[in-house]
Backbone:
């Protein structure tokens, strides 16, 4: 029996959500401000979006960021899913503690450390820095998030279907593709999306590991913000929030449908 | 059955090799390089550090390499007060922010765990959603609000709380606001996960036995939510120590956090060994909390 929420509980939740959403709402509203001043309301307008789409450098960076996020998220999803399988299925193996450590550490590691250390590796390996080095860096970070998301699904996974398939002579790799993957796909997709947005949002690691010609969108935004607040930045931030929100809505609808189908 | 499990285990074992190799190459090895370079002398050449270890030259090279190692960077880290103050300031800001996060996050997480089940999923999504948007965007949102003629001052003056606009940007208050805002979901989610699992009949039992509510909270709720508290505190404290964006955009330039110091050494001064030394010491500071965090995660997983 639940005692239900008191008015204090409800107020705490409401205030918490207001705290989380009010600054974002202000940012979005002011991206439609006609005034050049970001603090004075001058009526509704979409002129900053028009200016944004005329800004070649910004668009180019957006292109770099989207390609980078899609590529690194895809590699990270494969590696992270494998890592999750290893963590939940492989039992005790040699070096497991080290492996677990390497999967969880990047989740809390300050980005300046991850960024700097990866850069020094790329220099030591004499790799040309640019798009590919950032891809590797983002893959390394985001695969750990994918691993955690997929792992939490695998832990509660009913293995009898897999065992049935394998008892009937299906090899493990095929069993994974035909049985396991279709059942865990919402977690894998969520992992991909998380990896995509983390890559799209990252400033610090990209700044360390990038090279000429590969300026990501957050790097471009950061250098502009340092010079002062501009309504155009509000517009690009609003678009980034919109992309992420749209992805989440599509995903939650899809996974709801899958759940309905499987029930 | 046992045979099937064993085969599945075998598959799991071969699955581990690729991510294992990747993480050794791109996560573990870089740290070793950081340690090594932090023991090198600055040079103007590109890459700006010496000595570079050449493993193909064998033992003689190794000996020469070891002889060339220098602890100058560490000596400098200790001697130069700037670094020491940066570390202390980072620890202070991280500790204070984490306490604020816990105090603000706990009632929210508790409230979420108490509302009707059918609303909890939605609330969870609403708390997670900001995590999916960029740190940079979230901090930027506050830059506009906290400006001298920003919305906060406009509101405060309009409500006659203050007579003249206050200075928010470039103060510690701004840093705390930005950090607490950015890390809020990281604190609420683990707390909620722990509180949501709590068996409410324990609270009723305490109430039936005449225990006052504050005492029930202190003796039952708080101890039961301990794993959530530990996870939330570590999940916030560790990355905040190395935080860069919030202090850089919201804080003043006079006293830096260690993440900013590292950034300056690297990008402005191009002193890679000094930056590596800063990173190595930061890593050493954080090793203990990181190990506790991993231990906690592993135990949580085995319990699930």
Residues:
């Amino acid at each position: 029996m639940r005692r239900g929420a008191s008015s204090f509980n409800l107020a705490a939740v409401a205030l918490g959500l207001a705290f989380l959403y009010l600054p974002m709402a202000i940012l979005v509203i002011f991206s439609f401000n006609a005034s050049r001043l970001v603090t004075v309301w001058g009526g509704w307008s979409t002129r900053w979006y028009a200016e944004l789409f005329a800004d070649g450098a910004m668009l180019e960076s957006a292109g770099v960021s989207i390609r980078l996020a899609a590529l690194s998220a895809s590699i990270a999803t494969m590696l992270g899913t494998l890592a999750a399988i290893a963590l939940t299925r492989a039992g005790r193996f040699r070096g497991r503690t080290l492996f677990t450590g390497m999967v969880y550490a990047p989740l809390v590691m300050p980005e300046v450390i991850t960024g700097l250390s990866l850069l020094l590796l790329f220099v030591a390996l004499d790799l040309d820095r640019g798009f590919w080095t950032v891809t590797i860096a983002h893959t390394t970070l985001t695969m750990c998030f994918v691993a955690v998301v997929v792992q939490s699904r695998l832990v509660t996974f009913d293995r009898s279907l897999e065992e049935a398939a394998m008892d009937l002579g299906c090899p493990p790799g095929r069993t994974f593709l035909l049985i396991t993957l279709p059942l865990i796909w919402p977690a894998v997709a969520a992992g991909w999306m998380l990896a995509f947005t983390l890559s799209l949002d990252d400033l610090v690691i990209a700044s360390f590991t990038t090279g000429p010609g590969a300026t990501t969108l957050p790097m471009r935004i950061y250098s502009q913000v340092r010079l002062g607040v501009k309504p155009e930045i509000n517009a690009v931030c609003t678009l980034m929030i919109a992309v992420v929100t749209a992805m989440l809505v599509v995903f939650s609808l899809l996974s709801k449908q899958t759940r309905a189908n499987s029930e | 059955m046992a045979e099937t499990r064993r085969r599945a285990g075998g598959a799991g074992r071969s699955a581990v090799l690729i991510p294992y190799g990747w993480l050794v190459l791109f996560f573990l090895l870089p740290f070793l390089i950081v340690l090594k370079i932090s023991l090198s002398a600055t040079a103007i050449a590109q890459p700006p550090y010496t000595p570079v270890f050449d493993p193909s030259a064998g033992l003689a090279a190794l000996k020469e390499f070891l002889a060339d190692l220098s602890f100058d960077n560490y000596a400098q880290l200790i001697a130069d007060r700037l670094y020491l103050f940066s570390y202390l300031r980072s620890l202070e800001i991280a500790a204070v922010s984490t306490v604020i996060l816990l105090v603000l996050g706990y009632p929210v997480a508790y409230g979420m765990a108490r509302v009707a089940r059918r609303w909890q999923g939605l609330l969870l999504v609403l708390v997670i959603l900001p995590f999916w948007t960029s740190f940079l965007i979230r901090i930027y949102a506050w830059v506009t609000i906290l400006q001298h003629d920003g919305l906060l001052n406009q509101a405060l003056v309009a409500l006659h709380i203050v007579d003249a606009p206050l200075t928010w940007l470039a103060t510690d208050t701004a840093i705390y606001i930005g950090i607490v805002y950015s890390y809020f979901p990281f604190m609420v989610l683990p707390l909620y996960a722990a509180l949501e699992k709590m068996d409410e009949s324990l609270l009723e039992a305490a109430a039936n036995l005449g225990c006052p509510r504050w005492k029930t909270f202190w003796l039952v709720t708080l101890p039961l939510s301990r794993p959530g508290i530990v996870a939330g505190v570590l999940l916030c404290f560790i990355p905040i120590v190395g935080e860069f964006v919030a202090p850089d955009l919201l804080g003043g330039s006079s006293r830096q956090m260690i993440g900013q110091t590292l950034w300056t050494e690297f990008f402005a001064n191009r002193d890679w060994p000094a930056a590596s030394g800063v990173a190595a010491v930061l890593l050493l500071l954080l090793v203990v909390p990181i190990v506790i965090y991993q231990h906690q995660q592993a135990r949580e997983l085995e319990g699930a």
